[in-house]
Specification:
Helices cover about 80% and strands about 0% of the residues. It is built from 11 helices and no strands.
């Protein structure tokens, strides 16, 4: 029995260390946003722009690639986005979903604070993505935005015309993978290992065609600013972003936040600090 109790304790501590660390990160991010709201908003814009850099990169190379290798090439290169965000420091809506969920369950941030943070990050990411997209178009759009048959318009059209069920399912898996990349990166001190973990998670998400609301912001903005087909519309973009954002929240909050919180803290008897829940 003693061995069984020790084994259970080790498993609990394995997950609790990271989940409590993320809860503390949630508190620090909220405190920073309150002390320096402009600085925090700039960091959210940077995250949207960094994701946009990855989108422009994979669309540029994917546009020229053969169909058989297109998804492989695009998936292999998208890791630049989260690598920039983690190592340069920026505030991504996808990651905040997970951080704030842990903060809420460990009773360190309130529900209203969580929702406010998510809204703030989402709009900051949107402005950053739009800013990057406008710069790309002003710079010539890599010579493919004015071709209605180009990859960016094909991708935008497909995303805007997918069903609600399809979008939510793909969005759940997407942010599950993104938050897994962040979660696993926190468990290693090796920068090389972090990059490898980020690469595999984002490779899976892009190559399999899952839905990321922040990435879609750049796709839609560039497509709408170019010579897009009639099926690509502002309303279609809003529809996609609304549905996909819900799926991303479910993926990050439910499949990582709630799941790993329950893996770290038993439902009965033991609280976040090892004692009785208060």
């Amino acid at each position: 029995m003693g061995y069984t109790h020790q084994a259970i304790t080790e498993v609990l501590l394995l997950h609790r260390d990271i989940s409590e660390q993320f809860a503390d990160i949630a508190v620090s991010k909220i405190n920073y946003a309150r002390r320096n709201p402009l600085g925090f908003f700039i960091l959210t814009m940077m995250a949207g722009a960094y994701v946009g850099v990855g989108i422009v990169l994979i669309l540029t190379l994917g546009h020229e690639a053969e169909a058989a290798s297109q998804k492989l090439i695009m998936g292999s290169l998208f890791g630049i986005t989260l690598t920039l965000i983690i190592f340069a420091g920026a505030e991504l809506f996808s990651g905040h979903i997970m951080y704030m969920t842990f903060g809420f369950f460990y009773r360190k941030v309130g529900a209203l604070t969580v929702i406010t943070d998510w809204i703030f990050c989402w709009y900051g990411n949107l402005f950053g993505a739009m800013m990057l997209s406008i710069l790309v178009v002003m710079g010539g759009g890599n010579a493919w935005i004015n071709d209605q048959t180009s990859l960016v318009h094909q991708v935008a059209e497909a995303k805007m015309n997918s069903s609600v069920v399809e979008l939510i399912a793909r969005a759940i898996i997407c942010n599950w993978l993104i938050c897994l990349a962040i979660w696993m990166s926190a468990r290693t001190k090796s920068d090389t290992t972090k990059c490898i973990l980020i690469f595999w998670c984002l490779f899976a998400f892009v190559a399999a065609g899952f839905e990321h609301g922040i990435a879609n912001m750049t796709v839609f903005t560039i497509s709408l600013l170019g010579n897009h087909p009639e099926s690509v519309t502002v309303l279609g973009g809003a529809y996609n972003l609304a549905v996909v954002s819900v799926g991303n929240i479910i993926g990050g909050a439910g499949f990582i936040g709630v799941a790993y919180y329950l893996a770290a803290v038993p439902l009965f008897g033991v609280g976040a600090n090892g004692g009785k829940d208060s």
